[in-house]
Write a structure and sequence with these properties.
six-stranded mixed β-sheet, 641 residues, 16 helices, 24% helix, alpha+beta, 36 strands, globular
């Protein structure tokens, strides 16, 4: 029961990291000598000392004439100075034979070697040749137009230091001092094992209950970004002997071993049981009081890290960056990286779980407030630890303490950025999801307009526009008193950007007699009390949810609590048999091969704060909407333009 007890002893995040680091050898794993053209992105293992001066000779910086500067003193266009012009013309790559004496000069090209005796070069524009005489129309000072030997780099100077991550600028310096190969830290080799009978490789046919192995790809690329060398060992089924063999093989040839999945305490979760066999010291933490990522298992053997990451993508990637990435940086010789922190106000109330530190992944948007001016609003990304996209779309995370249960909207929080820099979008769209909007944002991306879309539903999008937290809010809200879409919800501070019409209706699997050949309202009137007929709902605050609630007239059929956030997810639930009916767009129903009963012709429009009306992203969006080819493309998607 050693493994079970280890899991039940949940540790604080900092204590878990302390135990983990204490069990590891965090020094780089030796060095390699690589040719210069393979050094980009590697980390220097030794200081680089220049064997030469740069430049290695006194070099002319301009086309002109090399001379003694004192021969130009007092020269002007009205009263030029005259010197004798030598016969030699100094080009690049040759050693001059002329020695400059008082009253003499020679022609020299940019990059040419300044001859002995000269201490300046006068620009060709300020001199005129007259036979063998040179008239100079502007005075120059000693050193003008010349880079003296060693003024850039001196022989024996340390030009790059150990631990430097080599960029193109650095490799250029190395080439300039004649270095053909460099000593760099060896890349730590990281074994990546995916576990579970449900995992299949990308490219294989998808079957019910199976999941594509996205973790192995994102972990391998994250390892590369951190200076490591991933070694993907494939997918291991839920077989204890096969997993144990794969683990021991990885430990023989790799510096770090990552297993993805099988870290919970369920009967099919074998990874932590295999890792529990390791010693010196073996498992140091199994279960950490944080969200996402509580089931992570941290272990070490003979100074090498062995980590079982949660199987859910967001949990796996987040815990990798929290616990594994800092270790990999040290093993690759890169040193610790300080995270950038910005302050933002939570856009919505957040409920957290007492007893666990929660790392709330958020998207950041710029907002305008009369009292506070320009600031940042933080929108929780939601979608849970099983989401593949949450981490990739988030800008950073806010930490909610283990003793905090509710964080109110408007609370100022520190957000640790996931990257080194925060790139704010040129166009922020918050509101209801639509495939037409997906198309429009894709077109803007091609024009170089970087956008951010947060699917929070029509009502929350409208509220965000009122608070000045977005450039556009996509909405389809029916005003019950006027029976008009969207316009009645405008305020004096908001403008309407007209979008397009679309058809919403009930979707079902073809051949279902409860729906086939009937109107939507007839069918729903019959099935809303039938517990055997399961619906799929939509998220609260969305325009579609409002339409569904009107159709149900207060009923709560089976499946009412299942609330996906977009139209495609609702259609997928019906198509896959998890639900019998739902409400979505006609074009999505056709694509999914589902039956469709029309309910409502609606308007999908955009509201925009007047304070943001002249932002380049908003103007580009408005222009795009009017282009004939774009309207034709929207019509092809089933929109009414």
């Amino acid at each position: 029961m050693r493994d079970q007890q280890q899991f039940l002893h949940v540790l604080d995040r900092d204590e878990a990291e302390r135990r983990f680091r204490a069990a590891l050898d965090l020094t780089p794993r030796g060095s390699d000598t690589v040719p210069l053209d393979a050094a980009l992105g590697r980390v220097l293992a030794v200081d680089v000392i220049s064997p030469v001066d740069v430049p290695s000779f006194d070099r002319s910086n301009i086309d002109g004439f090399a001379l003694m500067s004192e021969d130009t003193f007092g020269a002007s266009e009205e009263v030029p100075r005259t010197v004798e012009l030598g016969e030699e013309a100094i080009h690049t790559g040759i050693v001059p034979t002329t020695v400059i004496r008082p009253g003499t000069a020679v022609e020299i090209a940019t990059g040419g070697m300044v001859p002995r005796g000269a201490d300046a070069v006068v620009m060709v524009e300020y001199a005129e040749i007259d036979g063998r005489r040179l008239r100079i129309a502007r005075a120059t000072s000693p050193g003008s137009g010349v880079s003296f030997a060693g003024t850039d780099i001196t022989r024996g100077e340390t030009v790059l230091r150990r631990g430097q991550l080599l960029t193109s600028r650095d490799t250029g310096v190395l080439a300039a001092i004649g270095v053909a190969e460099v000593e760099v830290w060896r890349k730590p080799v990281v074994a990546i094992l995916s576990t579970g009978d449900e995992i299949i490789a990308p490219g294989e046919p998808m079957h019910a209950s199976k999941v594509y192995d996205s973790n192995a790809q994102v972990l391998a690329d994250a390892v590369r970004e951190l200076g490591g060398e991933p070694k993907r060992l494939g997918i291991i089924p839920d077989d204890m002997a096969a997993l144990r063999e794969a683990l021991h093989s990885a430990l023989e040839s790799c510096d770090v071993v990552l297993l993805s999945g099988g870290t919970s305490k369920g009967a099919g979760d074998l990874s932590y049981r295999v890792v529990a066999d390791l010693r010196d010291p073996g498992i140091v933490a199994h279960g950490i009081a944080l969200k996402p990522g509580k089931p992570i298992c941290l272990a070490a053997t003979h100074g090498r890290p062995v980590v079982v990451l949660p199987g859910f993508p967001t949990s796996a990637v987040f815990t990798f960056h929290e616990f594994v990435a800092p270790v990999l940086r040290l093993l690759a010789g890169r040193g610790a990286q300080e995270r950038m922190v910005v302050q933002a106000r939570l856009a919505v109330k957040v409920n957290s779980e007492i007893g666990r530190t929660e790392y709330l992944l958020v998207g950041l948007v710029e907002t305008t407030n009369e009292a506070r001016g320009m600031s940042l609003a933080a929108y929780p990304m939601g979608q849970g630890s099983g989401s593949v996209t949450t981490f990739s779309r988030a800008d950073g995370f806010a930490t909610i303490g283990r003793h905090e249960e509710i964080v109110q909207a408007g609370t100022l929080v520190d957000v640790q950025l996931l990257g080194r820099d925060l790139r704010l979008a040129d166009l922020v769209v918050i509101g209801s999801h639509c495939i037409g909007l997906d198309y429009l944002l894709g077109e803007l991306q091609q024009q170089g307009v970087y956008s951010k879309f947060l699917a929070v539903g029509s009502t929350a999008g409208l509220d965000a526009a009122k608070r000045g937290e977005c450039d556009l809010a996509g909405i389809h809200l029916l005003h019950e008193k006027t029976d008009e879409y969207n316009r009645p919800f405008l305020t004096p501070a908001l403008d309407m950007v007209e979008g397009y019409g679309r058809a919403q209706g009930v979707v079902f699997r073809r051949g279902d007699r409860r729906f086939e050949g009937r109107t939507a309202r007839e069918a729903i009137a019959d099935v809303r009390q039938d517990r055997a007929c399961v619906m799929v709902n939509r998220n609260q605050g969305s325009g579609t949810r409002a339409l569904i609630d009107r159709l149900l007239e207060g009923a709560r059929p089976a499946g009412y609590a299942v609330q996906p956030r977009n139209h495609n997810a609702a259609a997928a639930a019906v198509s896959q048999g998890r639900a019998d009916w739902g409400v979505t767009l006609d074009i999505i129903a056709r694509r999914a091969g589902l039956g469709f009963l029309p309910v409502q012709e609606e308007r999908y429009d955009f509201v925009s704060p007047k304070s943001r009306a002249n932002r380049p992203g908003v103007l580009a969006f408005k222009t795009l909407l009017q282009e004939p080819r774009v309207r034709e493309a929207l019509a092809g998607l089933g929109m009414k333009v």
